[in-house]
Design brief:
Helix 3 links the parallel strand 3 and strand 4. The protein has 11 helices and 10 strands. It is of the alpha/beta class. The protein has 2 domains: 156 residues, Rossmann fold (3-Layer(aba) Sandwich), CATH 3.40.50; 112 residues, Rossmann fold (3-Layer(aba) Sandwich), CATH 3.40.50. Bound molecules: D-glutamic acid (DGL).
C-alpha cells in the first residue's frame, strides 16, 4: 500500500459539494483526522454520465489525492461508488471506502416492514448497486428506487432551500410513499442538504438514512485496521475544486455552517464526453 503514513490526510471526493455531508460526519466521528477534499464542480453532475466517463474522472481525482499524501480515499459520491469503486480498487494500492455498502446496511437495520425507498442519481439507479447491496443485507426486501436528476443541480446552484427544490422533492417521493416504505435512503451525498424538505413530506416514523454516518464509522474501522489512525496536532483540512473556488467556498459555508479555509483550484485534463458536456455549472 502507498501513502501509508498515519500522519497523512483522509482523501475525500465527490462531483461537487455533496461529499461535504461525508466530511461533516468525519469531523464528528474522527475529530483528530485531517481531510483533503476534491469537489469536481467543473464536471458536475455525474448522474447522467457513462461508467467510462466517471472512471476516467475518478482516476484523475484519486491520482491527485495520492499526490497530496492521502492515506485512504473516500468515495463520497454514490454514483462513483456504484460505477467505479471496484475498478479503482484494482488500480490504486491505497485503502478505499465507498458509501453504498454502509448505506444499505443502515437501511436494512432500520426497516421494520422490509420496504425501502431510494432516491439517487440516474446512473446510480441504473447500476442496480443499491438494490444488490440491500438484498445482500436483507433478502426479500422491496426497494423502490427513484432517479432524481433535478436535485444535484439545485444544491450546486445554491437553491437547496428553494420552493423549486421543495416541489421536486414532493414529486420524487410520490412512488416511495405509494410503496409504503418505512425507510428512505438518501442515495446521493447531495441529498442530506434537502433534509428539511424531505422531513416535511415524509410521514412520521419513516427512517431517513444518510449513508454518510455509517461511512464515517467505516472509515474509522479501516484506518484502525491498517494502523493509520492519526495521533498528534491537526494542521487543518484542504479543499480543492475544479470549478470556481470562491463560489465553492461560499456555498460550502452555507451548507455546512462552517467557514472553510481558502479553497484552491485543481485542473483536470480529461475531456468531458457525451451528452452532459455542458454540465450544470456550479
Ligand atoms: N453526490 C453525488 C452522488 O452521491 C452526485 C452525483 C452527481 O453529480 O450527479 O451520487
Amino acid at each position: 500500500m502507498v501513502n501509508s503514513s498515519a500522519g497523512g490526510p483522509i482523501g475525500v471526493f465527490d462531483s461537487g459539494l455533496g461529499g461535504l455531508t461525508v466530511v461533516q460526519e468525519i469531523w464528528r466521528h474522527l475529530p483528530d483526522e485531517e481531510v483533503v477534499y476534491v469537489g469536481d464542480t467543473a464536471r458536475v453532475p455525474y448522474g447522467g454520465r457513462s461508467a467510462e466517463e466517471i472512471r476516467c474522472f475518478n482516476r484523475e481525482i484519486i491520482g491527485f489525492l495520492l499526490q497530496q499524501g492521502a492515506k485512504l480515499v473516500v468515495f463520497a459520491c454514490n454514483t462513483s461508488s456504484a460505477l467505479a469503486f471496484p475498478v479503482m480498487q484494482r488500480e490504486f494500492p491505497v485503502p478505499m471506502v465507498e458509501v453504498i455498502t454502509p448505506g444499505a446496511r443502515a437501511a436494512a437495520a432500520a426497516t421494520r416492514n422490509g420496504r425501502i425507498g431510494l432516491l439517487a442519481t440516474e446512473a446510480t439507479v441504473r447500476s442496480g448497486a443499491y438494490v444488490r447491496a440491500i438484498l445482500g443485507e436483507l433478502p426479500g426486501a422491496q426497494v423502490t428506487a427513484v432517479a432524481c436528476p433535478l436535485l444535484v443541480p439545485l444544491v450546486e446552484s445554491g437553491r437547496a432551500g428553494s420552493a423549486e427544490a421543495a416541489r421536486a422533492v414532493v414529486e420524487y417521493l410520490e412512488p416511495v410513499r405509494e410503496a409504503g416504505a418505512d425507510t428512505l435512503v438518501l442515495g446521493c451525498t447531495h441529498y442530506p442538504y434537502l433534509r428539511p424538505h424531505l422531513q416535511e413530506q415524509l410521514e412520521r416514523g419513516v427512517a431517513l438514512i444518510d449513508p454518510a454516518v455509517e461511512t464515517a464509522r467505516r472509515v474509522g474501522e479501516v484506518l484502525a485496521a491498517h494502523e493509520l489512525r492519526r495521533h498528534g496536532p491537526r494542521r487543518g483540512d484542504r479543499f480543492y475544486t475544479s470549478g470556481d473556488p470562491a463560489l465553492f467556498r461560499r456555498l460550502a459555508g452555507e451548507l455546512t455552517g462552517r467557514t472553510l479555509p481558502p479553497v484552491e483550484r485543481v485542473e483536470f485534463s480529461s475531456p468531458v464526453l457525451g451528452v452532459n458536456a455542458a454540465g450544470a455549472g456550479g
